[in-house]
Amino acid sequence: MAFRFERLSIPDVILIESKVHRDERGFFMEAYKQSAFAAAGIPQRFVQDNHSRSTRAVLRGLHYQRNPMAQGKLVRVLEGEIFDVAVDLRKGSPTYGRWAGMTLSSGNQRMLYVPDGFAHGFCVLSETADVLYKVTREYSAGHDAGILWNDPDIAIAWPIRDPIVSKKDADHPRLKETDTGFVYQETK
Asked: Mean pLDDT over residues 94-102, rounded?
């Protein structure tokens, strides 16, 4: 099997490990295979790739898009290391307002699937990090939204002190101050 899928403390957030074939020339891996992802419960069609480069201590997030343009994301680090976080925004969910986080790096080749209905963010642990994320809906400025990165009710244990945060991200509301519009629907 080319992939290993592990559901995290929030079961809809999935850690993905690909079988990496290494030798003296470098490595080869499958980064995405629709049939394997669908069999693991990720039947999404990805329509846009985003690539960001950030320096140490940069924190991006917590971002999401409102319905009907909500995005699922498949996050992968091409170079460097990040602490990647997903926050459940679905009212009525047993994990509403909780977060799950994982270190992703070019060394461990892990990926994180963040479904729609979640806010996403990351902080950079290495000198620089190149992050590639596939999304299930195209970017829509009119649906762009966010939650405050250091919302005390969510209490994310970010592994850096004094992060570098954009003004836009610093001005996002706390979760309790906004209606994200997401409602939990139990899957059978």
From this structure: 98
Catalytic: which of 63, 64, 120, 172? 63
**At CA 75, angle to CA 69 and CA 78, rounded to 5?**
135
CA distance to 1, 61, 64, 133, per residue, from 143 (Å): 38, 15, 8, 18
* Residue 172 falls in the annotated catalytic set: no
Give Cα 178 distance to the centre of its chain.
Answer: 20
Query: Active-site residue among 32, 133, 143, 184?
Result: 133
What is the model's pLDDT at position 43? 73
Contact 118/13 with Cβ under 8 angstroms? yes
Q: How confident is the model at residue 186 (pLDDT cuts 50, 70, 90)?
A: confident
Contact (CB, 8 A) for 131 and 123:
no
| Mean pLDDT, range 17-39, rounded to an integer | 91
Known catalytic membership, residue 32: no
